[in-house]
Amino acid sequence: MAIQKLYAGAKLREQRLKIGHTQKDFAARLGVSLPYLNQMENNNRPVSTTVVLALASEFGMDVTELSSGDSERLASDMNEILSDPLFRGETPPVADVRLTASNAPGMARAFIALHQSYRQAQERLASLDEALGREDARATPSPWEEVRDFFHYCDNYIDAVDRAAEHFASRANDPREMRTIAIEALAASGITVSFTDMDALRLLEPEQSTLHISSRAKHETQTFQLLLQVALKQYDTLLEATLDLARFHSPAAHDIAKMGLANYFAGAALLPYKKFQARAQECRHDLEVLAQDFGASIEQIAHRLSTLQRPGSKGLPFFFVRVDQAGTITKRHSATLLQFARFGGACPLWNVHRAFETPGQFLRQLAETPDGVRYISIARDISKSAGRFGAPTRRFAIALGCEVRHASQLVYADGLDLSRDTAFEPIGISCRICARKNCHQRAVPPLEQNLVVDPNRRDVLPYRVD
């Protein structure tokens, strides 16, 4: 068996500096030439047995420290850090990382410490943003927040439920047959479906085994509610098993999450993964075409596109968001580097807010976030009528987008000049954590930034971010 050579240049250099020797004096005490020591300190030569013995006899050094494995651990830590999306683009070769860890461990530790500080600062800002956005700074999240975070950290993709829904949908030869398939499945479970003139979208009367669906609701909404009831009736065991893995802190969170999973099943059955993904790629993600082909709403289509995160068969990495007229985010998910504010509203420069001004139209926007990443985004208003005079209409706007490098796969990018820098509008996430210093739409100062107030000058903002 070959003997592994020992490269410990950093340890040699550390020992020499510790005792205050020059390379010449240290080489003399080790019994080697100056060039030989220089090569060993730079890991161009392995540490010889003679040097190891001299280190023990001359300096009383614990020679086991020479092979303590620090460089391997440092290299592993650095490789893990370099996988952070923060370091997008060309990453250093593994050999360079190992060389840095072995030849410049101090630099490697400083790099690791810097990244840790960066992450801690980001988490602190997020925590401050969260605390300021909540009525009370609770130590534990509310059930609603807990469920929202559960889906967020699952990338809004639940594999077992998604595949079960896809299998259920395979009963239909045409996606638009799902309404009939759902009614038949419920009938097989002893539930009769009745389309009733009522305000509620769905009402199950267990005693009569009757499911009432609002006759005023849109066709796609009725189908969705039928599929949701199928999930609750026929896939309860699957939903409960998924919830057991989530380990929610309260019964309320469990109940909210179960309805969330039932909704997920309904969307995945209405828009089965492989068929939907293939058609989306074919029509270059045209939301209107997909809505017509699958008998779904524009919002259902956009939301589903953001959930196509099946391992080995991922779709385009989209972000999806829904806001109300006050700008509050009511739905959010991102498979991109763009992450939304956990509380409060989105950046006012985002085109999703302008969608309320142009009902029924798609708005396109090229945008750039403070980290330099560029996106293409489409937005549209979504109105949900109760179907009768005097009933309130719920108004929202949705936005769907991805990084501009995927623009060729979007029909909405046609005709846009992606090469012009000025075509990209600067947007942020939340004013409190946005680093832009000269934003004319800033509502509040950024956290942990120095503010300068000049009594002799007034610009767009009454202060300057230093």
Describe this structure as you would to a colleague.
- The strands form three sheets. Strands 5-4-8-7-6-9 form a six-stranded mixed sheet, covered by helices on one side. The protein has a three-stranded mixed sheet with strand order 1-3-2, with helices on one face.
- The chain is built from 16 helices and eleven strands.
- It is an alpha+beta fold.
- The radius of gyration is 30 Å and the shape is elongated.
- β4 (319-324) and β5 form a beta hairpin.
Features of the shown structure:
466 residues, alpha+beta, six-stranded mixed β-sheet, three-stranded mixed β-sheet, 16 helices, 11 strands, 13% strand, elongated
Short characterization:
By secondary structure, the chain is α+β, with helices and mostly antiparallel strands. Helix content is 42%, strand content 13%.
Please describe the topology of this protein.
Layout (H helix, E strand, L loop, with lengths): L8 H11 L3 H8 L3 H8 L7 H11 L10 H13 L11 H10 L1 H28 L10 H11 L5 H11 L8 H11 L3 E5 L5 E4 L4 E5 L4 H16 L1 H11 L4 H20 L2 H10 L4 H8 L3 H8 L13 E6 L4 E6 L28 E6 L5 E11 L9 E10 L21 E2 L24 E2 L11 E2 L1
Helix content: 40-55%
C-alpha Rg (nearest Å) = 30 Å
Measured by DSSP, the beta-strand proportion falls in 5-15%
Can you give the mean pLDDT?
Answer: 85
Structural class: alpha+beta
Count of distinct strands:
11
Order of SSEs, N→C?
A: HHHHHHHHHHEEEHHHHHHEEEEEEEE
- Stretches with pLDDT under 50, minimum 5 residues: none
The total of helices stands at 16
Strand order of the largest sheet: 5-4-8-7-6-9
Straight-line distance between termini: 62 Å
Shape: elongated
Q: Summarize the biggest pleated sheet.
A: 6 strands, mixed
